[in-house]
Design brief:
Number of strands of chain B: 4
Strand content of chain B: 5-15%
Order of helices and strands of chain A: EEEHEEEHHHEHEHEEHEHEEHEH
Oligomer: heterodimer
Largest sheet of chain B: 4 strands, mixed
Helix content of chain B: 55-70%
Largest interface: A-B, 49 and 33 residues
Number of helices of chain A: 10
Helix content of chain A: 25-40%
Radius of gyration of chain B: 32 Å
Structural class of chain B: mainly alpha
Structural class of chain A: alpha/beta
Number of helices of chain B: 14
Strand content of chain A: 25-35%
Strand order of the largest sheet of chain B: 2-1-3-4
Distance between the termini of chain A: 36 Å
Radius of gyration of chain A: 24 Å
Shape of chain A: elongated
Shape of chain B: elongated
Number of strands of chain A: 14
Largest sheet of chain A: 6 strands, mixed
Distance between the termini of chain B: 50 Å
Strand order of the largest sheet of chain A: 6-7-8-3-9-10
Chain lengths: ~300, ~400
């Protein structure tokens, strides 16, 4: 649905977005990750047409062809900069955004009322936005971005500033959007939420791509292997050294709780390894762990930062 | 719970004019607060009635009479004339020193110390309104005494006192008659335009800088083109300012017409209907175009302001005052070359051309040129403002320099 090809955007001496290319398929949830200043918001502003790339192309597939900007009624945008008309009633504000997106007045009002009910704010529809808590204002802003049921929605940091309960609420809202046929592209720093929500992710640093792919693919390619954690009766340094010599073992380390964490290649069979370990140490319990997205992010973005500093 | 279903986004794409109209309606409703307008009108009516009542009471009330001592009144050479609010007390004090003492201890409100038939000193502890009346009344009495003493027959004296009669009639119709209605309506249009201008600037600044401060701008420009947003804002805020001005204008006119009758005075006569439609159309055109041009100009300035509370650029609200002030200085000399140039110059024509149309003869090409130049300027300001707006509205925490702003316009 969206093709970004070799897009470049520069501000003064800073390459905010540097030769980026990626594709977002229709109906998927696509996560855009990266540290502060990586160029995510600059990229998102180009996608919604607020700014233009210096070079490269942004193409949206529509009606069998490709356009460089989606019509207002087909795209939704929740910017990182949060803000609403604080002196206006909730219903009126949402209705206004619906009207600007091309809804009729009746449709805009109906959609606004439905969203306020969905967000448990229906009883407060006549109150001014300024009377709401920050979290509730964020809910209203989310509704303003999606009440016209866009084909594609861009959410810049939708979870920032939300408590865990509201984070769960937003997770559900985004999934519902996807289930209703909307393609979602969002940026976030909460790796655990990204892991639960995204179909694919794209990590950028200093305006460039660091890694991309589906969550399992990313774990496999950049996770540095699976971990086998052994709860043992006793494991001295000599035991650890012996485990390091086993085939398929990439690394061995002792954890704070005394357990031994063995990193193995992602496709290595666990059975033979456990059998060999059992000959060297008394195993009380065993479990395997996938590398978390957090680990992958820290490893890859950290490496990119070191490389950039060295360059 | 599920996501609210409204429609799929396969409806026709929203047009630019539709967006402009919806933005204009939103801005209009944001800034026309009917309840506050109603309260303002009630306050205006109450203040108007109270001030009229007080004025009537003041006019009816007679000033308290003060006692003023007179020393050496025999030197005047004519009888002491009666002065409103003053009771003369001659002969109470023998000399000036005694009279001054009397004034100091408040035995009398003042003392008239006559030196001769042409001069005197008034001694008071505080300046009072009656002192002016004393001077003018004594002058008149002295002239009357000298005139009466002239060796001229009484009939000739009466003839000498008749003033020369001059009646001023302004001819505005081809048949030589006066069109007071056109002059009044044209003046009202110009006044309304100026009121709309100054009434709307505050809303314009609040509307644009407020959205920047509330961080709303990014959402809006993701939906509409900055030029569309600006066009909608200008139209909506001009409309809001017009409604506010019209409501207060109608209330004020109603008060002017009704209050005298309510207070038992003669009512103000209604002017005749205007007949010079051409002049009124020209005045209306330059007023509307002038308002739009200045709103576009001020919107562009507002788009570069980060914080209206601390920005020195807020003072630029006063810029339109300069050409308008200049126009008022030309009221006494509307037929000069400078006035003619300023009546077609776009920044001043809104104020100067109507003045010239009302006060002097204007060639046909002058209004035509003024309207064309003003329309072109309004369009150019709107376009430049849209460009500045597009870049400036997303700048937070700093204001662009004038050099940057000019670069944006050129680019």
């Amino acid at each position: 649905m969206l093709d970004v090809s070799r897009v470049h955007r520069r501000y003064a001496t800073v390459h905010a977005v540097n030769d980026l290319s990626f594709h977002v398929a229709e109906g998927e949830i696509f996560a855009l990750l990266g540290p502060n200043g990586a160029g995510k918001s600059t990229l998102l502003r180009m996608l919604v047409g607020i700014t233009r790339p210096d070079s490269g192309t942004i193409g949206w597939r529509r009606d069998g062809g490709t356009v460089d900007r989606l019509p207002a009624g087909e795209i939704g945008y929740l910017p990182e900069e949060r803000g609403l008309y604080l002196d206006q009633p909730l219903l009126a504000v949402l209705e206004y955004f619906g009207l600007l997106r091309g809804l009729t007045r009746a449709d805009a009002r109906a959609a606004a009322a439905a969203w306020l009910d969905r967000l448990d704010l229906g009883a407060r529809r006549s109150e001014k936005v300024g009377s709401l808590s920050k979290g509730n204002q964020q809910k209203v802003q989310f509704a303003a971005a999606v009440l016209h049921r866009p084909r594609f929605v861009i959410l810049d940091e939708p979870f920032s500033g939300l408590d865990p309960l509201n984070q769960e609420l937003f997770l559900g809202l985004v999934r519902d959007l996807r289930d209703a046929g909307t393609t979602v592209l969002f940026s976030a720093h909460q790796m655990s939420l990204v892991e639960r929500l995204a179909d694919r992710l794209f990590v950028m640093q200093h305006g460039r791509e660091v890694l991309s792919g589906t969550i399992p693919d990313v774990r496999t390619r950049w996770g540095g292997g699976r971990r086998v954690v052994l709860q043992v009766e006793q494991g001295d340094d000599a035991t650890l050294a012996a485990l390091r010599t086993l085939p398929a073992v990439l690394a061995v380390a002792r954890q704070d709780d005394g357990a031994i964490a063995i990193t193995v290649a992602a496709d290595a069979p666990i059975g033979p390894l456990l059998a060999q370990c059992a000959t060297r140490v008394a195993i009380v319990d065993v479990r395997t762990e996938q590398p978390s997205l957090h680990d992958v992010y820290i490893t890859t973005v950290g490496a990119a930062t070191v490389a950039a500093a060295a360059a | 719970m599920s996501t609210p279903q409204t429609r799929r986004s396969d409806a026709p794409e929203i047009g630019r004019w539709t967006q402009t109209r919806r933005i204009a309606a939103w801005e209009f409703n944001r800034f026309v607060k009917w309840r506050q307008q109603l309260i303002g009108i009630v306050v205006m009516v109450v203040v108007g009635m109270v001030s009229s009542l007080v004025t009537t009471m003041v006019q009816k009330a007679k000033s308290a009479t003060v006692r003023v001592a007179v020393v050496n009144d025999g030197a005047l050479g004519f009888a002491l004339p009666a002065v409103e609010g003053v009771t003369w007390v001659p002969g109470r004090y023998a000399d000036a020193a005694a009279a001054r003492t009397g004034v100091m201890d408040d035995s009398v409100a003042g003392a008239l110390l006559v030196r001769d038939g042409a001069s005197a000193t008034v001694v008071v502890r505080k300046r009072a309104a009656w002192t002016g009346r004393v001077e003018s009344t004594l002058t008149t009495a002295r002239r009357a005494a000298q005139f009466a003493a002239l060796p001229v027959p009484d009939g000739a004296k009466a003839q000498l006192m008749v003033p020369f009669a001059v009646e001023v009639t302004t001819v505005t119709r081809r048949d030589g008659s006066s069109d007071l209605g056109t002059r009044l309506v044209a003046g009202a249009i110009l006044l309304a335009g100026l009121l709309v201008l100054f009434n709307g600037f505050a809303s314009l600044f609040a509307g644009i800088t407020g959205e920047k401060q509330q961080r709303i701008t990014e959402q809006i420009v993701a939906i509409v083109a900055p030029q569309t947003w600006m066009d909608g804002k200008i139209l909506g805020l001009v409309g809001a300012a017009f409604v506010g001005t019209a409501l207060f204008g109608l209330t004020g006119t109603g008060l002017l017409l009704l209050l005298p009758r309510l207070l038992g005075k003669d009512g103000i006569a209604l002017p005749p209907l205007p007949s010079d439609v051409g002049t009124l159309l020209v005045v209306a055109a330059v007023t509307v175009l002038g308002v739009l041009m200045w709103f576009a100009f001020m919107a562009a300035i507002a788009a570069t302001i980060d914080d209206p509370n601390s920005s020195p650029r807020s003072a630029l609200l006063l810029v339109p005052m300069l050409p308008l002030g200049l126009a008022f200085t030309l009221l006494s000399r509307p037929d000069t070359t400078v006035a003619q140039v300023l009546s077609v110059f776009p920044l001043t024509s809104m104020a100067v051309l109507p003045v010239r149309l009302l006060l002097t003869s204007v060639p046909w090409w002058e209004p035509a040129l003024a309207v064309v130049l003003l329309a072109v300027s309004a369009w150019a300001f709107r376009r430049a403002a849209g460009t500045i707006f597009a870049v400036g509205i997303l700048m937070h925490g700093k204001e662009p320099s004038w050099r940057e702003t000019l670069r944006w316009i050129r680019s």
